[in-house]
Amino acid sequence: MPGTEVASELLLISKTEEPELKILDDFFEPKAVHDHFMELTTRYHPSGEENQVREYVMECARKIEGVEVIHYDSEAKDPGERVIVLRRKGSGDHASDPYVTLQAHMDMVCSPDKNIFPLKVFGYLDNEGAKWIKAGDTDSITDPKKGTTLGADDGIGVATILAILADNNLKDYPIECFFTVQEETDMGGAANFDKSLLIGRKYINVDAEVVDTIIYGSAGGCNVQYEGNFALSSVPCGYTNLKLSISGLLGGHSGININSGRLNAIKVLTEILIRFNKRLTNLDVEGEGIKSYDLRLVSLQRDEDPISNKIPSCASAIIAIPGGDKEEFVNDFTAYCEALKVQSQPEENLVYEIKEITQNSLDEASTDSLLCLLQQIPHGVIHMIPGNTSLVETSSNLANIALQNMLINASNRSSDANSMNALIQMQKSIGELFKYSVGTSDSYPPWEPSKSELLDKAQNVYKEIYHKEDAATVIHAGLECSYVVQKYDGKIDCISIGPTILNPHTGSECLKADTVGTFYNAVTSLIQELFQKNA
Predict the structure, then answer these.
(1) How far apart are CA 451 and CA 472, in angstroms?
(2) How many helices (H) and strands (E) does the chain have?
(3) Is 489 left (phi over 0), alpha (psi -120 to 50) or beta?
């Protein structure tokens, strides 16, 4: 496990010229949020392995006067037991007021892998002069392959809560702090904590990603598994094995980015293999310069951590084709990928590779059946919310394939139970056609939109700060709020807010530094507004 002794540096660069890198000590305000966040970027904290951040939260809590540790178990293994709950009592006129609860998750998505700590963090100016923070090499601004995730989702939320807990301007208000684990995988902390731990009934989640927006509802979801069998055969004499790779795709959050036209690497490879498989295509037209081949599939896999809430950005397949067709196939594969890059403008960084290796293959029938199944498995937007052309209601992400176990995984999201059931039935019907069994797991509930006093007061604050008449919306993603609202039978006011983060769950993740200060102002103003009636 990487150590935590190396501090991250912040650099300021301009995209308009070849800059001389300049180190900055303070890149955004307030300083307390900045310092906490930068410390978190040095600490190892993938989902399920958050102990270094858990320890840091406790180190900070023990230094803040008046903070009471309600729950912390350093040896706990169960995600529901690994959460942290802290309270700072109110004083003066607010000594007997009910608590306001602030919540963030302590884990992050690690892309391209877990070996990214301590993060190499830098700042840059965009062409409009806005400040952003990123992780990876400085040239990852234009080349996502050289970037890593930043962990602003939700490190900036953790940093904000720690800063609020020590803020003297808020010391009279009763604040309850809830830090969860495993949000990025199964929301295990929020799903399994003991409901008696929280006594606040005004609940502010700080895991949103658009600074001038208040979220008050989110989609539910479930994972879907296709299980089947295939037959292996020896590669025919004279055949050559080739490994085809697709990488450099944008990927992104499988809810937030599902309707943005981003390619899925598994789907891309599937379409390529179907196009060049002579048993499955009739597009081999004389004179067009591209032919089809006697193709056998050896393997197909996602080449990154198989996170269900991330659109696959890289995948590879190994195929067997007649040796005499190798040169022509390489030329056709190259031409196809070049054309795809032109057609898919958001994916201009698509990278492809082909090389020769040795391995056994699936037989012809298994090859064709698997490719056709993958082609038919739904991916992307299934339905939009009726009457709203901008909000996704139901979607599915083809997330992973493990050929050695013959498992295919997809991640479904929907804010409507009937639409979710219809999608699952469609997936089961598709599976049955190809003799694959289809099951579901790891479901989580939707957070049904509901107007509340907390939402009204947040709207007033956001109108004053961001000059928006209506800042409230619902989101096509899973939030821990869904479990919390369900756990308390809807008898809790809940919203989700945060600064602006772009491209979470990818190497292009970046935090808009300019929004951190205004967000801190918004959340602290909201806390003050909630206690105004008792002043």
Answers:
(1) 10
(2) 11, 26
(3) left
Residue 40's SS3 state is helix
Query: Where in 238-379 does DSSP place strands (E)?
Result: 239-247, 296-302, 315-322, 351-357, 361-362
The pair of three-digit structure tokens given for residue 441, joined into one six-digit string:
């797991």
Q: What is the mean pLDDT of residues 428-443?
A: 94
Q: Which two tokens stand for residue 399?
A: 């997330």
CA distance 103 to 380: 30
CA 10, CA 38: separation in Å to the nearest integer?
9
Q: Could you tell me whether strands 202-205 and 493-496 are parallel, antiparallel, or unpaired per DSSP bridges? A: parallel
- CA-angle at 374, arms to 441 and 185, nearest 5°: 30
Q: 380-403 pLDDT, tens per residue?
A: 999 998 887 788 999 999 999 988
Neighbours of 278 (CB within 10 A): 13
Q: Enter the tokens of residue 381.
A: 């937007």
- Give helix 417-433 / helix 364-376 axis angle, nearest 10°: 160
User: pTM above 0.90?
Assistant: no
Cis preceding-peptide flag for 446 (omega within 30 of 0): no
For the packed helices 31-40 and 514-530, what is the interaxial angle rounded to 10 degrees? 110
Mean pLDDT for the stretch of residues 333-362: 83
Secondary structure (H, E, C), 493-526? EEEECCCCEECCCCCCCEEECHHHHHHHHHHHHH
Q: How confident is the model over 224-256, as pLDDT tens digits? A: 999 998 888 888 899 999 999 999 898 888 988
pLDDT in tens, 496-512: 999 999 989 889 999 99
Q: Where are the beta strands (DSSP E) in 199-350?
A: 202-205, 214-218, 220-227, 232-233, 239-247, 296-302, 315-322
What's the distance, CA 18 to chain centroid? 32
Q: Is 287 left (phi over 0), alpha (psi -120 to 50) or beta?
A: left
pLDDT in tens, 273-332: 999 999 998 655 544 556 899 999 999 999 987 878 889 999 999 999 999 999 999 999
The angle, 0 to 180 degrees and rounded to 10, between the axes of the packed helices 152-165 and 51-63 is: 20
Cα distances (angstroms) measured from residue 470 to each of 93, 182, 277, 459 = 32, 32, 52, 7
3-state secondary structure of 63: helix
